[in-house]
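hi! just following up on the protien thing from before. the input was this:
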Amino acid sequence: MLTVVLENPLYLQYAFAGCIVLAILTLPLKDIISIGFYDISDFFVTGMIAFFITYGIVVAGRKAVSTLLFVGIFFVIMIAIMLMNILVILPFKGRAENSSITSIYQLEGKEGKISIPISLDKTGEVVVYTGFTRVNKMAKIYENDDGITAIPMNENVLIMDVRDRVLYVLPYDNSIKSIAKRAPTWNENKKKQALKNRVRRK
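and the predicted 3d structure came back as:
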């Protein structure tokens, strides 16, 4: 069967397309069907590249490729993909996960706003703005002695703690923001000045 495919450029195109489809369809199975640093999706990606190279050899050389040569190409590509997984993809993925974990712990002490209400038996959601970035995270009520059992939507909160990627919050009223503006006194001053002027005239 493989020999027939390798001898026909049209069949090689079909095999190439089939490997693309199978690589996409098996993406959800990557963590289930895997051997070390090589999974089922990588297998079909390897086949896709191998059939593509074989097609190029057939078209350029105008001759069929032996099964042994195809298997050799397949194994070279497989080793290259494994090395790329070990040296590039896995370290990059690890750094991204560590960065995500670090960033969520940096939210402790910041202000946020409730987007989904929270109660003692219900996890809600809080929105935190960090620079130009909007972060939505699950939130629960922080243990408190004030009897706070629920926090409604749009309530300002302070992130007291971060545990297991969940923010623990309490209602918070920023004293600086909540200071009422002083009522304008220019009308009162104007009235006093007018009274003084009247007294002087008398």
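The chain has a mean pLDDT of 81.
The first strand starts at residue 34 and ends at 35.
cheers
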